[in-house]
Amino acid sequence: MHTIYTGERTRIRPFRDADEWHYTVSLDCGVPNEHWGPWHCPRAHALKEFEETGLVAPDKYSAMAIERVDTGELVGLEEHGAMHPGKTSTWIGTFVMKEHRKQGFGAEAKQLMLCYLFENFPLSTVIADTTATHRDAKRGLELCGMHFIGARRKAHCYHGKYVDVVLYQIMRADWEAGEYRSKVQRG
Amino acid sequence: MSSQIGVESRNDWLASGRHIMLRPVFAGDIPRLADLLAEAPLGIEDDPYPWTESRLRCRFEDKASPGLWGANLKLYTVASLDNQVVGYVHEFLRSTGGTVIRFHIADKVESRDTYGEDAVAVYLDMARQWNTLPRVTATALACEALKRSWLESAGFQLEVTCREGVLYEGRPQDYVVYGWVAPWAILNCVPAGAQAKELS
Fold first, then answer.
1. Which of B92, B96, B141, B168 to substitute to test the interface with A, most A CBs within 10 Å?
2. Are B41 and B165 in contact (CB under 8 A)?
3. CATH of the domain at A95
């Protein structure tokens, strides 16, 4: 039984099946935002990824579905990097479907994922990045308690231009001090 | 030149500086490289398994990317001009066009500082000549002062400091990310060879 983390507006849970995963990831890849650009995840690749681990194996790339609490709708995905006993850090990433943006779902999903990661793994820190031009994403990272730690200059190319990629980090102590932890339901 | 450095032909090395040459891995390098990979504080891969000679040899003989020379991942031997293996550069080519390197020079080799400084400069000089490379990213532990000085000497800039991001000697350690960016990428120009050369 996998613990489901529920906040005021969203919950994160494992994807129900390969089709739900493929549907979500194909939206993520197929509806690029103006900052990252297009990507492609072939169905065969997505299905193989899901069948191997259900996307909840900590030693591999993993992802969970973001679901609205009020309607039960699938609104996106929250992902994290592979972990192993020698790692003190991992990364997180968020995709929220276009029609569900600007309602705080992404920031809350990040907070829930931070609870999942810090409560279940001996991590010192969690990292995330976004493009320097992506104001909403940067705000979302700050809202969930992450701090700017630097920028990789001209590390991403889209629309014929190179843009900086900014990095954010949250330490375990900062997460422990977060007030939202007490509002999260587990189970 | 080739007779001076003890290799058979120019094809055996890719670039050389005043103290080292950078070349593909030869089968005879494997035992020494395995030791160096095990010695390096920051591994070249995320998994925690130690490098051994047999594990590295398996990777070297992998049919998909033989010689540790894949399309996206490459391992270069750093050899002294008398062809002693003194270090390595591991290169990952990102889909966005830049490379990410992790490198190491043997802790106990004489002239480590000289070799290291030359190795980073030679790699960057080689990479710049590709003309379409927008940036090179290099990572090191924050406490690796020598490596950081080699990067800075070569023209890399400190971009990110990540607190407690890796485990080393049983404790979380900070790591740093350095970057070198091509002048044409800074200006968002077309990465055409002639223009890139002019800008650089």
1. B96
2. no
3. 3.40.630.30
